[in-house]
Amino acid sequence: MSDDAAPHHGTANAEKSPIDHSSREVASSNGSSRAKIPARNVAFQPPSRYQTRHSLELDDYFAGPRDMQKHSKLPLFMRVHGSVMPKMILPLTFVGAWATAIICIDKFVHNIGVDTVLLTVLGFVVAFGLSFRVSTAYERYNDGRKYWSQLTLTSRNLARLIWLHVVEREDPEHPEYAKRDLLGKISAINLINAFAVALKHRLRFEPAVDYPDLSPLVSHLNGTMAKSADQTQLRHRKPSALKQFGDNLGITFAQSNPRKLIKRAKDNLGNLPHEVLSHLTAYIDNAIQEDKAIPTLCCQNLAFTDIRIMADILSGTERVLNTPLPLAYSISISQITWAYIMVLPFQLVAKLEWVTIPATVVAAYIILGLAIIGREIENPFGNDVNDLPMEAYCNEIAADLDVLTSVPMNEYKKFTLDADNRPLFPLSYSTAAEWENQSVEDIREALKAKATTSSKTMELERRKTGLAEIQVV
To answer: CA quadruple 324, 330, 333, 338: dihedral positive or negative?
Structure first.
């Protein structure tokens, strides 16, 4: 199928990836003993390379969020995945039947048409209510996206601070110190990733810790409430085919309470993202107080500031989740909308006659479509097709952290004298090593020429020299 493919996120990848839990023994360098190589996931894929399916199954049209990496070539008006059309099948069928009944009564029994002035009066009220509903829902959706964008920024800043500013001890007599410090930094950066994943599950009312993308990140955190709880009571039960069908069509009686796992649990489930932040704070405090690994006061303040921002993000997303549009507004807007749709055929039958049926269905599609969109994006953290793709956000954070830790801290300091470093490009193609042979005055004069030389002169000189080096003296 050519529509957007369904997401295939890291959680599914983790479920299917076989892991070699057995360590292999290899001979050491001197041949006197055998060292163990740590176990490795033989099917590992970096988060930035997670694959997605190229086709959609039937259920994928109702499941979300959408995979943002996929691109559909279909025109927007022809797309199904991401549309609210499946949830409008039953309401539009009812509206069509209602309009048919009205026109039949009007034609064969008694004239029941009313003046169209009512259409104008009620139309204004309905438009005002829908505008308020949709704008409020999109504001919540946008707030959720802003919080995740802020989390991505803060995660990068805190991870970079830990990786580059936490000192690794170098003691020839105790080489284990350096290894311990390195593993400590990696573990702390993993907690940043764990916070994002735990926040995703918390916002979806998934209180367990044995999810494939979360358990390896938090299973070593002793004392967390969710880990101590009975995990068997915190798993979703597979719905029946009839209930799943009704949920896909938006039938309210078939929809489950999203908080049912939390209500069913008998244990205190705690707040896992907050507990992850507590462990991360303990690491920073230990690095400052005991190990003296963050000697700069500015970096110490930045570390605690980033953790505070992450706590603010936790509270902000919980605010968006737990304070929907007041129920009175939602009920009133829904009643006003349906009242307008039900009265609409009475106002159209006199002038449109049998055309009243398709006209009412089209009008109901427009009105109910806006109402359903507002209801769907009101909670941007769920599993609806148009909700925020939080799996993609978590994968993006994990990929950025992996790239950061792939380069040793000291390697970041060596770029200035690299053979490919051309500090005065495009004025000069000379490397930094070649510029070291010049005086400071020559370098400053070249910098001045770089700022004042006209681009036309430079292009002319390059053509003359055939893109040779332009040495400024």
So the answer is: positive
Tokens 């409430």 correspond to 225
Token look-up 């020299």 returns: 465
Quick check: 158 and 307 in contact, CB under 8 A? yes
Cα distance between residue 256 and residue 247, in whole Å: 8
Among residues 387, 464, 323, 362, which one has the least CA distance to residue 67? 387
Tokens of 57: 């199954």
Count CB-CB contacts under 10 A for residue 62: 19
For residue 272, give both structure tokens.
């896992």
Determine the Cα–Cα distance for residues 90 and 113; give it in Å rounded to an integer.
Answer: 26
The SS3 call for residue 123 is: helix
Q: How far is Cα 109 from Cα 56, in angstroms, rounded to an integer?
A: 49
Q: Can you give the pLDDT at residue 309? A: 97
Q: How far is CA 4 from CA 87, 111, 193, in A?
A: 18, 49, 28
> In angstroms, how far is the first alpha carbon of the chain from the final one?
63
Question: Which has the closest alpha carbon to 106: 350, 339, 340, 355?
Answer: 350
pLDDT tens digits for range 398-421:
999 999 999 888 887 788 878 888
Distance CA 180, CA 185 (A): 9
Contact present, 419 and 96 (Cβ < 8 Å): no
Contact 340, 360 (CB under 8 A): no
Question: What's the pTM value of the predicted model, to 2 decimals?
Answer: 0.82
**Can you tell me whether residue 215 is helix, strand or coil?**
helix
Helix (H, G, I), strand (E, B) or coil at 67: coil
Token pair 């705690």 is found at 270
Distance between CA atoms of residues 281 and 339, nearest Å: 55
In whole angstroms, what is the distance from residue 214 CA to residue 217 CA? 5
Closest Cα partner for 141 from 366, 408, 344, 325?
A: 325
Contact 208, 231 (CB under 8 A): yes
Counting Cβ atoms within 10 Å, is residue 201 exposed (0-12), middle (13-18) or buried (19+)? buried
SS3 content of the chain, % helix, strand, coil (to 5): 60, 5, 35
**Sign of the CA dihedral running 222, 226, 229, 232:** negative
User: DSSP for 227-274?
Assistant: HHS-GGGGSPPPPPHHHHHHHHTT-GGGPPPTTHHHHH--S----HHH
3-state secondary structure of 146: helix
Strands 40-41 and 34-37: unpaired
pLDDT band at residue 7 under the 50/70/90 scheme: very low
